[in-house]
Amino acid sequence: MHGICFYRVGMSEYKRIRILVVDDDKTTTGVIRTLLERIGQYSVQVENEPESVMNAARDFQPDLILLDVMMPEKDGHQLAAELRTVPALSRIPIVFVTALISAAEEGLRGGEHYLSKPVNPLALIETVGSRLTSQAA
Fold it and tell me: Dihedral of the CA atoms 35, 40, 43, 44 (nearest 10)?
């Protein structure tokens, strides 16, 4: 892990890192939420309805979004493009989670970060930590 657990919001006040997990499959979001919450440093919100992602992101103000690629109505790339048009949400790092790639293909592809499904817990933790670290830099 990269050691980022909380970030400072005041002289002595720290805030948990917020992660929004978006996937139409409730089992997937449940597994990812459980894995991240067990670490103890993340506040995780789940959204299973693609049409509700914009409101969820505005309300929750995540520090990172884990976003499924293949969903009904709107795919993850469409949602990411929409998120990037809103100034308050445009700088939130996004990691795409997809069954369209293998574990060997995970990582940075075309300027975007990808994790394969089913999600490997160690790869998830490493990717989240590295994206948060690179965002903070």
Answer: 10
The tens digit of pLDDT for each residue in 50-100 reads 999 999 999 999 999 999 999 988 999 999 999 999 999 999 999 999 998
3-state helix, strand and coil shares in percent for the chain, rounded to the nearest 5: 40, 25, 35
Helix ranges, 1-74 (H):
26-39, 53-60
Residues whose CB is less than 8 angstroms from the CB of residue 42 and which lie 6 or more positions away in sequence, other chains included: 16, 17, 18, 19, 36, 128
Radius of gyration, alpha carbons of the chain: 14
21 φ, ψ (degrees, to nearest 5):
-110, 120
